[in-house]
Structure formats: structure tokens, C-alpha cells
Amino acid sequence: MFIIIAILLVAAVAFYILLRGKITEIIPSNKPAENINRYISECVEDSVREKLVMITEQGGFASPELYINHSGIKVAYLCYNNLYYSPCINQAPHYINHLEREIKNSISQDVENCFTTLSEDYQQKSVGITTSETESTNVELLDKKIIVTIKKEVMINDRDETKQYNDFKTIINSPLYNLARTAMEIVFQEATFCHAEYLGYQTLYPWVEISVSDIKSHSRVYKIVDKNTGTKLNMAVRSCAIPMGLG
Question: Residue 245: helix, strand or coil by DSSP?
């Protein structure tokens, strides 16, 4: 009797496993439409992080016009005066907004490529997809993060199910906002006092490390580093310059 019961139990378990496998084939556990937000978010974040390396090295500019060559890098002047003995003039008074525009412009083509690659991938899987023109892309710098919001209509048709997406938001952990505020403080002090008390600033804000390089007694290049992530922002200043031989 016990042998018969054991055989019946084994048969019941085998039947359940077989039936469960067939159900899984009929109802997929991971539909393509469920991954679209994650796919776009990861794609956009990769683009932002790649572009930020260049932008922050160059003082917050993708293509700086007023700059100094330092260690083979074009570092933009955030405060500049070509006269001697005169305090520098702020070259980017709305620096946070400027950085937001630089990031937006730098990633615009990559954003379109993200949606193009997504469409091609879904089409290869025989999943219907239609996309509209990008309505807007917005970049916002906040404390310890960057938020990218894309307004674009995407329609997914999969197994008689239609899903519509209109907004795509990517949140990226980054200290850029805090680094930019530090740069703005340095610019303020340079424009006001002809120098910046960066050692005292580091004592007040221990998360940041600031170093400065004097170049030909005319310009200074500041390197601002977030100690927690190693992210750095370079910037150049020419303020109260002293003629050669008098410094």
C-alpha cells in the first residue's frame, strides 16, 4: 500500500511540474513592455556619465571658447579679466543653469539613439512599437543627483496588449550640483578679493578637496574633488594678474 501511495505522489508531482511548465510557456513572466523604462533610464544614464567626464574636466563646457590649456586639457575660465591688477569678471553668472544646458545638448543625440535602438530591438522580437518626435528633454541639477526627464510618446503592442508611455525619468547619483556651488563660491571670492580662501572652505565642508595650480603667474586652475566619489570639476581664473617680473 505504501509503495502505491508513493508512486501516486511522484506521479502527482511530475504532472504538476509538467503543467506548470506549459502554463509558463503560455503566459511569459517577463514581457518586453515591462522593461522599457529601465532600458531608457540605463541608456540615458550611460550617456550622461560619459559626457560628464569631458564637461567637468573642461570647466563645465563641452566646447570652451575662453580657456587655458592645462595638462593637455582646455579648462574654461569661470572668472576672467585680461587686465593687470584688476579683479576677474564672472563669466558664467548662472552656472547651474549653464551646466544643465551643456548636459542636455551633449546627450540629445544619444537620447534619440536610445529610442532608436529600443525600437530596433522590439521589432526584431516581433513586438509592435511606434514612437513620436521627442517633445522635450529637461536636465535638472539637485543636491547629490541629476534628473533627466524626457517627454516622448511610445506605444507598445504585445500579444493583443497595448501600453502607452509619455514620460521617462532618469535619476543619477552625482555630486555635480555641490561641486558647481563650490566653484561659484570660488568665483565670488576671486572677483571680490582677488583670491579664494579654499583651505578654510575645505575645513567648513570636509566632503570636498580643492587644489590650485598657478600658471605663469597670470592664471590659476582649481581642481574641485568630491572625496566620496572622486568626481572632479576643473575651473580656471585670471584675477588681479601681476605682470611678469613683478610677482
Answer: coil
